[in-house]
Amino acid sequence: MAWIKLISYEESSGRLRELYDRVKGPNNNVDNVMKAHGARPHTMEGHSALYKSIMHHTGNVLPVSLLETIAVYTSLTNKCDYSVKHHFAGLSRLLKDQARADRVYKALAADKPEAEFSGKELAFLRYAKKLTQSVGSMVKADVDALRAAGADDGEILEVNQVIAYFNYSNRLLNGLGVTTDGDILGLSPPNTDKLDEWEHH
Question: Is 119 exposed, middle or buried, given 0-12, 13-18 or 19+ CB atoms closer than 10 A?
Fold first, then answer.
């Protein structure tokens, strides 16, 4: 399940148990990405607040399905199987159209987002690819291309934060060998304006 010890819900106590109670899903299930923080619970608190603000906050204006698509593409680029599995499951739930979800996955996995996306969405995906693969090569023209595709600065920031978050999370997961064994795929916290509302449904 990981290359470091993952503390189960049953083994947890004190502050860690309090945090697990805030992020758990059905039957006290805690995703392994959260269990990976068990030895330093304060890092799980920061991670959870960051994730909530970037992916599931009502202050965001882009559709969560687009944010999940960018999450999947960033994670595919990083070869992070854990995040790909979780967030493709979440994307599939949001789309409510498995055939469409499968086409999206096929296009992203083949590195051909243009097969399913165009306009602003395609520009965001191209930006995600470059920022993930070639962070040192980013130039103003990369953001100008997003504006030319119709994105405003708030939308650009939203997408930038999703890409940055998943580059962090992918490295956490791949760097510690965290797997999805025992996880319930595709659950997420509710879309609200409360940064401490983390329980997964």
Answer: exposed
Listed by start position, the domains of the chain span 64-176
- Cβ contacts of residue 168 below 8 Å, gap of 6+? none
| Alpha-carbon torsion, ordered 176, 67, 91, 199, to 10 deg | 70
For the structural domain made of 64-176, what CATH number should be given? 1.20.1290.10
pLDDT tens per residue across span 118-174: 999 999 999 999 999 999 999 999 999 999 999 999 999 999 999 999 999 999 999
Work out the number of other CB atoms within 10 angstroms of the CB of residue 194.
12
Residue 188 confidence (pLDDT) above 90: no
Q: Are 15 and 44 in contact (CB under 8 A)?
A: no
Q: What is the pTM of this model?
A: 0.95
CA distances for 163 relative to 28, 46, 79, angstroms = 29, 17, 14
